[in-house]
């Protein structure tokens, strides 16, 4: 009766209650062990919804695969706002520093097509543009041009 369970859990804050507990209850795994391992692997995402897959076998053994939250969720978490702008080209909801963009790019890099942090950061900036988030006070498109011009090569190396 081996199987797979896929859930979204708040990073570092999974518990034996819903949505995880009811899914794991009928399985042969140690629920507390699964919860602890998920929390250990997701603590860097501190409260942000993280996709988690638990593969289990009949003998009670299990494997956990932790995904990366969507870029928009990481941006909202880092900038500290709830929803993006309805007019992202005119009404800005937050401002990120280059270091914050780099942090998000490094977290998201395994799921992106980018080869390096600089290009991963440009993908993050694209998400910022559609959410109404500025970077270092600049519109996301202006910031991306500065990155292309090499202005932030030292920081994003």
Automatic annotation (TrEMBL):
GO biological process: translation
Pfam families from the UniProt entry: Ribosomal_L11 (PF00298), Ribosomal_L11_N (PF03946)
Domain of life of the organism encoding this protein: Archaea
InterPro entries, A to Z: Ribosomal_uL11, Ribosomal_uL11_C, Ribosomal_uL11_C_sf, Ribosomal_uL11_CS, Ribosomal_uL11_N, Ribosomal_uL11_N_sf
PROSITE patterns to which the protein is assigned, alphabetical: RIBOSOMAL_L11 (PS00359)
Entry keyword annotation includes rRNA-binding: yes
Coiled coil: none
Any one Gene Ontology cellular component term annotated for this protein: large ribosomal subunit
Subunit structure: Part of the ribosomal stalk of the 50S ribosomal subunit. Interacts with L10 and the large rRNA to form the base of the stalk. L10 forms an elongated spine to which L12 dimers bind in a sequential fashion forming a multimeric L10(L12)X complex.
Family (UniProt): Belongs to the universal ribosomal protein uL11 family.
Protein known as: Large ribosomal subunit protein uL11
Gene: rpl11p
């Amino acid at each position: 009766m081996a199987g797979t369970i896929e859930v979204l859990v708040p990073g570092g804050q999974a518990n034996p209650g819903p949505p995880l507990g009811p899914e794991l209850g009928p399985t042969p795994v140690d629920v507390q062990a699964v919860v602890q391992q998920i929390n250990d692997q997701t603590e860097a995402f501190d409260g942000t919804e993280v996709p988690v897959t638990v593969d289990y076998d009949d003998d009670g053994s299990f494997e956990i695969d932790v995904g990366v939250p969507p870029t928009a969720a990481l941006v909202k978490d880092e900038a500290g706002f709830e929803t993006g702008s309805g007019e992202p080209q005119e009404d800005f909801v937050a401002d990120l520093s280059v270091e914050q963009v780099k942090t998000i790019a490094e977290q998201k890099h395994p799921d992106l097509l980018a080869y390096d942090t600089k290009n991963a950061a440009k993908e993050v900036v694209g998400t910022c543009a559609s959410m109404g988030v500025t970077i270092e006070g600049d519109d996301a498109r202006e910031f991306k041009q500065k990155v292309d011009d090499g202005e932030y090569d030292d920081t994003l190396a």
